[in-house]
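Office hours follow-up: a student asked to see two folded examples consecutively, so here they are.
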Amino acid sequence: MIEYFFTFGIVIILTAIAQYCYKKNKILSYVCSFLSICILSLIAALRRLDVGVDIKVYGLDFFNACRYFSKMSSYIAFYKNEQLYFALNYIVFHLTQNIRVLFFIMQFFISSIVYIIAYDNMKKRDTNILLYVIAYLFLWFNTSLNILRQSLAIFVILYAFKYIENKNYFAYYIAVIIATLFHSSAIVCVVIPLVDYIAKKKNWKTYLTLSIGVIYFILFNIRIVAMLLNKINVMPDKYLLYLSRDGNMITYYAILKLIMIVVIAMYFKKSKDNEINRTLFSICVYDVVWYTLSYFIKYGYRISYYFLPHMILLLPRMEADLRKSKGRSTFILVSIILLIVYWVVRYSVVKYDGTIPYNFYWEV
């Protein structure tokens, strides 16, 4: 665990320097951010292959399978879906035959998106780069070491949120299509423009509550719905195998996420009431709702993974809106404490995602 906190500490210091010196020395700011991205990418690349459950579930097998295909098209056609992920695997394998290069590239891609979003929002609305990075480190970095394909898809979706903000829904749906080429489950993000539509309504809280009720009604009847869809050949037989429950493994995270939502809601009234903040807040609420999907469908909680990272966007915006309020410092302090508690519980106590303990590849 010390490896993560040491890494996070260095990245946070470098990002703080990047934030502080941006107006005076943009080159130094970008250099510090680039170094942070490289450090995170190296931590991802240099880990032992037992750091992250999905590496042995599919990551290593998919990568090593490239040796049996002389053509990329044949390799991609064999797996049929998620073409961009398999194309990346194939290219890296035939250039280096080293899966650690793949890990480096993937984390570099994800971390770069976080910093691009942070700089873009800092320029447009004077948000704090450091808060974006802190939220990413404690909400998602460890999970990105576990789920490989889906993390790439998720951060394509997160980057594409700017199209929602600019009301360019066509570009957003193109981004969703691109994300599905990394992980097919990204198709669920077609509903996010609908969330944005609800958030713009005058009685958006009422619509939000009603929609949650509808979702839970569907969830409690999910087996009936799935059987009907299967009968009319909309849902393939293989998906019926997922209609089993994962038990109460999600309770800890659901409670912690709910606490975060409550804290945000408390300060939401003090911040500027704008439609984009409403949309982001609603997406974070839906994250908690969809996370309970695992009580009804095996691995269903992974759908919520497309919603959770939007908190990386919401927290800095809330902080910027609260700068003239007395509650700003308390909001920052409470948010960071909750993020750290979430990280400790999820990754260290429950050891979910299998990223603790961290071991370098040369350690026995």
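And the second, which I mentioned at the end of office hours:
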Amino acid sequence: MIVYCGLRHFYIHHFSPPHPDSLYILTHNNQTWDFSPELKDLGFTNQMSLSTVHYLNKPVHIIPIQLGDFYPYTEEWLNFSLQYTNSIEVEYPHAWYLKLPNTGMCEQFFHDFAQRLQIQDMGGIWGGGPSKLVAKLAAHNLHHREKSNIVLPEQTSEFLNRIPLDRLPLPELDHLLKLGIKRIGELANLPLNELTAHFGLRSEALQKIGRGEDLIPFQARKIEEFHWEMDFTTQSDLLRPVVYEELTPYVRLGVEDLAQRLAFSKKTAQGLRIMAVPPEQEPSLMKRTLKEPTNDPRVLERAALQLIPVGTVKKITLSVTKLQPEPTVQLNIFPNRSVRNILPKQLPAQIGISIPRRERILEMWKELFL
């Protein structure tokens, strides 16, 4: 089962506005990617022309962004998702896919994801289906009540026959609408030769879309590092930088979290990196290479405590690097030679005791004939 997750107003949430009292529209490649939530109350949507903002009677700034600047903020959500699976494909900084083994896991993930969104005071969408396409359509078109936004394989055809075709950014959309095709599922019902007559080589791709199949299969990202981060100035019980003595229990907490994720992923780490941000100073970076790859929290904790700075810190990031597969435990199928198996005393032979040939033949005769 594939799961799609998306965060609403992700870019606005992590955008530093030069004019706090203004409204913003963030664009990428001349397309609207995010905007201040207040603009929605004024009737603005992603599909509107940017010239519309001149009639909103409010100061609105249009700012182009680079998506690469926002990927670091995605790590927190990917680390949350890694508690459920290692199979994650990132689509954009605000959206990603997961592959989970069954619908029960999907329901549990959706429940936890919704709770985390509430804690972070953010909005989001989620959906599940047999493919990335169906999962994304479910997230955008179904109500978010854990179970109701999962489309099972046997429900895919009926589901796609309900979704309007214009929900997909197809280059052939206008041509398809003129042919009377209004729903996504209708693409699968058209004969291939008829589609080929209109769309040529694209006909097979359109039929796959109509069946809810992915044009590009799920591709799990390769995990190269795990991170744990804490900003002490935003923690409700602190709201200030901490000194070395206060930092130790938080480092232990971070190391335990990293060790659990390593063990869950069946990986070990041979590198440890700590980035500490002092108040009003440049961040300091400390690295260490361990003698042996490990996921033992005690080993990682000892290394981390030797690296953390002595001064005041307002934010710290722990990272385990140089990940390797966890070594397979080889079971010993041979008995330990130092252990002697003592036979019961009632048997006619004991280890270290020889019996006459006559008695051996007699015992063999008994086994054969009695």
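Two things to take away from it. The longest helix spans residues 244-264. The chain has a mean pLDDT of 86.
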